Amino acid sequence: MRTTRRSATFGLLALGLAACGPPPPALAPATRDETLVAVPNPAFDAWVRAFRGRAQAQGIAPGTLDRAFRGVGFLPGVIERDRNQTEFTRTLEDYLAIAASDERVATGRAMLRRWGPSLARIEARYGVEPAVVTAVWGLESRYGARRGEVPVISALSTLAYDGRRGAFFERQLIAALRILENGDITPARMTGSWAGAMGHTQFIPTSYEAYAVDFDADGRRDIWSEDPTDALASTAAYLSRFGWRRGQPWGVEVMLPQGFDTSLAGRGTTRSPASWAALGVRGADGRPVPDHGPASILIPQGLGAPAFMVFPNFGVIARYNNAEKYVIGVGHLSDRLAGGPPLRAGFPPDAYGLTLEDRKLLQRRLTARGFDTGGADGVIGPDTRAAIRAFQSRAGLPVTGEPSRALLQRLI
Ligand SMILES: [Ca+2]
Fold it and tell me: What SS3 class is residue 333?
């Protein structure tokens, strides 16, 4: 769950892609990040003393503040991350290569089985299908594997003190203190992303207060524990609250007719499926699209790449994160988890003339030569570019860091 609506090409923790952009679905770093260790900062300490007065004025007990701020300090890495949220846009193809990778689909199906009884009870109460809840979980924290290990009070205090979005983060900090005061979690266990998104499905504190539920009825709304039940139920409660329609798709892949007027694409234009059908829009299987309500056409990567017809549930997922690719990522992953097929339409070659398979082959060949690309997902990120530069340098080629067909041939 993002901290702002402008957002986040990727979830903060989930996609595990370095530098994929806005709060990249970040990477809770596997190794300890020294920039996320508190450093002395007298101005920050003075800010905390003043803040304590404001917090008490809002009803936070001094004892809660004492407990919450024990060991809290300024985290330089949080500010670094906040400054580096450049909107570095990935294509839908790259996004889906990660968000709905074979591995993420397989793990998600295993999680659906493992947590099936809980998910069935959650569906019975909130009317949100297990595959949809699990897909949000998969994108937000890789099914709980990347819940974030940054101490939330330190992270939010650092951001509130810094002041770039000070009022927003001070509100989140007050909400976090109320959560501690309620006894849902201890200060030591209250961890999250660098921006204070917490637990399996990355709730920010104000969203937690409004929507988190104690589904297993142990007296605490625990979205941090190994057992994801409360977190998954909280996500279902959130989607339900924003109007999720059970049994209705988020969207479907469609085929557009030759000469489709692309000015009709986008969430701003809504028509009935019958009206779209009259313009020649069909399901990817060639059949008419059933009437799931008012629909828009999305062509995120232009004509010649997958196109979608999206329905009101698309807008419900967008309440979690308004980025179009995120919503398609959750939707498509949920379809795959429910047993659905990959997208039917292919994507065109990239700006370098390479397809996804070419890029995966390039990564495998570089890695086999000892230039580690950090996996072969077909997404040309910082690791792959570094590997290309290292190879080019070793081979006496101009060092560009850019993939190409010539490079692919040379690596055979
Ligand atoms: Ca509970």
Answer: helix
What is the Cα–Cα distance from 98 to 17, expressed in whole angstroms?
Answer: 8
How far apart are alpha carbons 197 and 201 in whole angstroms?
8
pLDDT digits (tens, 9 = 90+) for 123-137: 999 999 999 999 999
Q: How far is the CA of 7 from the centre of ligand 1 (A)?
A: 30
Q: Give the integer Cα–Cα distance in Å for 310 and 74.
A: 44
Residue 313 Cα to ligand 1 midpoint, Å, equals 28
**H or E segment and range at residue 55:** helix 42-57
Give the angle subtended at the CA of 147 by the CAs of 146 and 153, to the nearest 5°. 140
Give me the residue label for tokens 């570095």: 88
Distance in angstroms (rounded) separating the CA atoms of residues 42 and 401? 43
Q: 149, 147, 77, 138: which is closest to 110 by C-alpha?
A: 138
Quick check: helix, strand or coil at residue 225? coil
Cα–ligand 1 centroid distance for 410 (angstroms): 57
d(CA 10, CA 401): 24
Distance 60 CA to ligand 1 centre (A): 23
Q: Dump pLDDT digits (tens) for 48-98.
A: 999 999 999 999 999 999 999 999 999 999 999 998 876 567 899 999 999
Question: What pTM value is reported for the model?
Answer: 0.90
* Ligand 1 centroid from CA 2, angstroms: 23
Determine the Cα–Cα distance for residues 361 and 376; give it in Å rounded to an integer.
8
Q: Which among 343, 399, 348, 395 is positioned nearest to 369, based on CA atoms?
A: 395
Distance of CA 181 from the midpoint of ligand 1 (Å): 16
Nearest to 26 by CA among 196, 185, 164, 154: 196
What is the C-alpha separation between 384 and 381, in angstroms, rounded?
A: 5
**Spacing, Cα 124 to ligand 1 middle (Å):** 18
From the list 11, 5, 333, 323, the residue with the least C-alpha distance to 146 is: 11
How far apart CA 355 and CA 188 sit, in angstroms, is: 46
Token output for 283: 């399901």
